[in-house]
Design goal:
By secondary structure, the protein is an alpha+beta fold. 70% of the residues lie in helices and 12% in strands. The protein folds into two domains: 36 residues, no CATH class; 55 residues, no CATH class. It is built from four helices and two strands.
């Protein structure tokens, strides 16, 4: 029976290593592993979007946004709202 426990521990260790390699870390709460994201969701999403922009639009975010407006995914009001948010974020970054 001891060997079964040893194999199980190896499996858990392998799982921990794999999870940490993909941007998660864990804490142990008793016998339960509690996983947390290692990076904020928005940062991971932004990297994913950047890959799509690079692949489909040769790195042009402008082309993506124009396409989203052309296909009615975004309207002018939403574009203005996004532009305002970007300006505010840049202003905050400049103050630091």
């Amino acid at each position: 029976m001891q060997a079964g426990c040893h194999v199980r521990q190896k499996s858990v260790s392998a799982h921990e290593h794999n999870a940490e390699g993909v941007g998660r870390f864990h804490a142990v709460d008793g016998r339960t592993y509690v996983y947390h994201a290692a990076e904020p969701r928005a940062r991971v999403a932004a990297r994913g979007v950047q890959r799509v922009v690079d692949w489909f639009c040769n790195g042009s975010i402008e082309e993506v946004l124009v396409g989203m407006v052309d296909t009615a995914m975004l309207d002018q009001k939403q574009v203005r709202m996004l532009a305002d948010k970007v300006a505010k974020t840049k202003a905050k970054g400049a103050k630091k």
